[in-house]
Specification:
By secondary structure, the protein is an alpha+beta fold. 14% of the residues lie in helices and 31% in strands.
Length: 542
């Protein structure tokens, strides 16, 4: 009896140790209202990733993705994420990897006409922009674009193109000469389905492909699968196998293998539905699928949106088998934005969500539609289309929540394929907000543009409606030029804002000013984009 008890105790202890070994942690901060995904391992302890909807992004809280970085110290601990403004734009940005020791490739998407892959070179701590590389048909990629560069000779990319089978498909570009790339090669129907395939990563040593899909019989939402190249072409693959060790009841997408015992991946399991980057709490033996079975090749036939689904013996390829990614629209479901099914988004009503920027809790709010031409109202607030805003000449949508500073979206900032999230700043002592639309003529304290005056008029109206608090106006510049002159200029700009508010009826005693020059940057001064962010005026509640 004692022998059996000892065996049971040993088994229980082994299972407990196994469970602890398999424990996962967030490496970029869990339970945030931002999406962290697409990890790219650079070596030397550095990892880049894309972070969406963060207020520090160049495009603000509605920015679909800037590049951020974390670093790992000698004890194996990850640092707080750092915004890499030198690699980011106001659009969607995604690091692909380093083709050599000093070069980084980045996918930028600033509007339909400015979609492409760009090259950066590293000299010292900063990345310096070099050029756009010519990749055939890159402008045709839409949807959730993601990928990786392998050995400097292959670029794997996910996206929806006119040649896609269904939604996003996986493609590969081959380096033909030193500067010439092939046209995109579809990876074929063993890999691509009528669902979504995203975030490809290829291990050239083992000829193994890692990717995420939502259209396999054993997938739970979107899961990471592994397949092996079995022939001479990019359509020869084994049947993909789900990597059970890292998949969860949530969704997984994006993966970076750091070493034999360490991997980082994106997951929504423990982050309120928003993607975080996760890894194992301690080193584990990676149990990567290896029992690959060859698959039959099938011809690629693109499915038209309104055409019937072709008959097939592969049940997981049929449209009715595609599992819904996010069945309920609610706060904390970022896959609505990241992985939207292929639908005509013009017919989808716009969605707004107001969230406390600190507590991350959802807020009640009212919408106010602003037009420079005519007053605008809507009778049905839950069924407004983007076309409705354009038709009525709406320029801005203001979100008002009691006890918070208003949050304004311009019509151009709105995104129709996921909720427009407003991170609301609470009116409390120490809270600061940036006066986004207040600008000055270069090198002076003179207001520039009608938009600045309109913004200050809106601010004065808000202050007059909320007389219970005072504010301090902080002026900032970038670090270019003489520090003494910069400090004087920043103070003059803060004074100009105060004087204008006083003219509009705000009591002088409620307004204090400070000028900090370039001593308090919020972004890198090594790039124009960073310097532009540092040239700002902020309002702090006293």
């Amino acid at each position: 009896m004692a022998i059996w008890q000892g065996a049971i105790l040993l088994l229980s202890t082994s299972l407990l140790n196994l469970a602890l070994a398999q424990e996962t942690i967030s490496v970029t901060g869990a339970n945030s209202n931002q999406n962290d995904w697409n990890p790219v391992w650079l070596g030397d302890g550095r990892l880049l990733f894309t972070r969406a909807f963060h207020p520090q992004n160049i495009g603000g809280a509605s920015d679909r993705g800037d590049i951020w970085m974390i670093e790992k110290d000698e004890e194996g601990k990850w640092s707080k994420a750092i915004h890499r403004a030198d690699l980011s734009t106001s659009g969607y940005d995604l690091a692909l990897g380093m083709p050599n020791v000093i070069t980084l490739l980045v996918f930028h998407e600033e509007g339909i006409d400015n979609r492409g892959i760009h090259e950066y070179a590293k000299f010292g701590p900063e990345w310096n922009y070099r050029r756009r590389i010519e990749v055939p048909k890159i402008g045709e990629f839409s949807g959730l674009v993601g990928g990786s560069v392998i050995d400097g000779k292959l670029i794997f990319l996910a996206g929806k193109t006119p040649e896609s089978i269904g939604n996003e498909d996986l493609y590969v570009f081959e380096l033909v000469t030193g500067i010439t790339w092939s046209e995109p090669i579809n990876l074929g129907t063993t890999i691509n389905t009528f669902g979504q395939e995203v975030s490809p990563f290829y291990d050239s040593n083992n000829q193994t492909l890692y990717f995420s899909t939502n259209n396999r019989p054993d997938a739970q939402g979107k899961d990471i699968y592994v397949a092996k190249k079995t022939g001479d072409t990019w359509q020869d693959w084994s049947n993909p196998i789900r990597w059970d060790q890292i998949n969860s009841a949530g969704s997984e997408s994006g993966l970076a293998i750091i070493g034999d015992n360490e991997v980082v991946w994106g997951s929504s399991q423990n982050s309120g539905g928003f993607f975080d980057l996760r890894s194992f709490a301690s080193e584990v033996q990676l149990d990567v699928p290896s029992d690959f079975q060859p698959a039959l090749r099938r011809s690629i036939a693109r499915q038209e949106e309104d055409s019937p689904v072709p008959a097939t013996t592969d049940s997981y390829l049929t449209e009715e088998k595609i599992k819904p990614i996010s069945p309920n629209i609610m706060v904390g479901k970022p896959e609505i934005g990241l992985f939207l099914d292929s639908v005509k988004i013009e017919s989808k009503p716009l969605v707004w969500i107001a969230v406390d920027a600190v507590q991350k809790s959802e807020l009640d709010f009212d919408l106010e539609f602003l037009s420079k031409k005519n007053p605008v109202t809507f009778s049905q607030m839950d069924s407004i289309l983007f076309a409705d805003l354009v038709e009525k000449g709406v320029d801005e949508i203001k979100i008002n929540s009691e006890g918070y500073f208003p949050y304004t979206f311009s019509t151009e900032q709105l995104i129709v394929d996921h909720p427009n999230i407003a991170l609301m700043a609470k009116i409390q002592s120490g809270q600061s907000i940036k006066l986004e639309k207040v600008s000055f003529t270069r090198g002076t304290a003179e207001f520039e543009g009608l938009e600045t005056e309109l913004a200050l008029k809106e601010l004065s109206a808000f202050l007059l409606e909320n007389e219970e608090f005072s504010v301090r106006i902080h002026g900032h510049t970038d670090s270019s030029g003489d520090p003494g002159l910069n400090k004087a200029l920043s103070l003059d700009r803060a004074r100009a804002v105060r004087d204008y508010l006083v003219e509009l009826g705000v009591e002088f005693e409620r307004l204090r000013i400070s000028g900090w020059g370039g001593s308090r940057p919020i972004a890198s001064n090594a790039t124009e984009a960073g310097r532009q962010k540092n040239r700002r005026v902020e309002l702090e509640v006293q």
